[in-house]
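Study the following:
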Amino acid sequence: MQPFPTSFLLLFYQVSLGGLFAIAATPFHQLERGFYKSTAGVLFVVGFLGLLGKADIYWKSLSLGIRPGSAVELSFYILFLLFFALYLISLWGEHVVFRARSFSLALLTGLAGLVTSAHSFTQASLWSLETILYPLSFFLSALLLGGVTVGMLLGHWYLIDTGQSIDPFVRIFKFFCITLIIQVAFFLLLPLLLYLLGNPNTVRALQRLWEEHAFLLWTRVLVGQAAPIIISIMIWRTLKIPHTMAATGLFYTALLGVFVGEILGRQILALTSLPF
């Protein structure tokens, strides 16, 4: 098991990385450049705060001996934010190739860092099912966190630019919904896969989760998944009117549910080392 601060700081990284993937789902030439500047700026600050916390934990752990995995993980985090910063700077110019390359490198290094983080929590060997399931779970959480965050920020942009086409909002909403549905389906299969094919340590962790932390798990699912599904139906109905202000308010509510659910998931991760 790892302490809660370590798993909690992962949330910042996932918001930042997932937000970049969500930005990629929006039509760049249909939205004003100001939206990308402000949204990328928010996501970068969130990621940078996570890096500061991660670096603090790493330096404190040096007294206990250098862990190569932690050093590699921190290096990927730094590279991710470096390329993210270059992408952010490129938004003030017209260097299209530079922007595309810095964006792509930010995604690649971000994914590498997320996979490294996922492996630091698993108790199984490298050649195990957990090697696939843990990074996949972390990635789906990143997409969900990023999707709901960018959706809320885009909705807020519609309050500024009232003449904007509804299409970009619908696209980010679909990104959020598809990610949410995939995560729910994944969570339904995850316990079964881990129990039948997982490492003995993982199976024992599952048993401990059911026996000691079942309420925490159910709260995480109800608040972080069931509630956002209901809210997403309401968002879709408001977008069909269309009423972007109401949809934005509902996105705020969905964001609250997703973030609370993911924070509870980080608590489960800290207590059991299971990626829920």
User: Anything to note?
Assistant: Residues 130-160 form the longest helix (31 residues).
